[in-house]
Amino acid sequence: MAQYSAEVDGVFVALADPTRRSVIRRLGRGPTSVGELAAEFPITLPSFMKHVRTLESNGLIRTVKTGRVRTCVLNRERLALVDDWLAEQRRVWEDRTDRLERFVAEQAARNEPERQEEGL
Q1: Where are the beta strands (DSSP E) in the chain?
Q2: What would the pLDDT profile of 51-100 be if each residue is shown by its tens digit?
Q3: Does the 1-77 domain belong in CATH 1.10.10.10?
Q4: Every domain of the chain and the residues it spans
């Protein structure tokens, strides 16, 4: 569980930056060279490479070097960590709101005779 948590934390940290999210969005259309990706952003190549390394170290992308060209490929399976985490959180909150709804309904049913006696 701790390993899973650290992995999810890393993915969320990587996705917290708008440049990195843009790279992920772009790679969703297919593999692209680092040079082509970097050309889309108004930052220096060394700064862009820091984003690439962050995405790669958190497993969201992998890079393949062929000659002088480094190509980035999206790791869609890693994004499933985010889906799984969000689904788990959604389930927890739905359970909580369901319990709250049942509690409110039970309290209303319990108080109904008193309300009728009071003419409300």
Answers
A1: 32-33, 61-66, 69-74
A2: 999 999 999 999 999 999 999 999 999 999 999 999 999 999 999 999 99
A3: yes
A4: 1-77
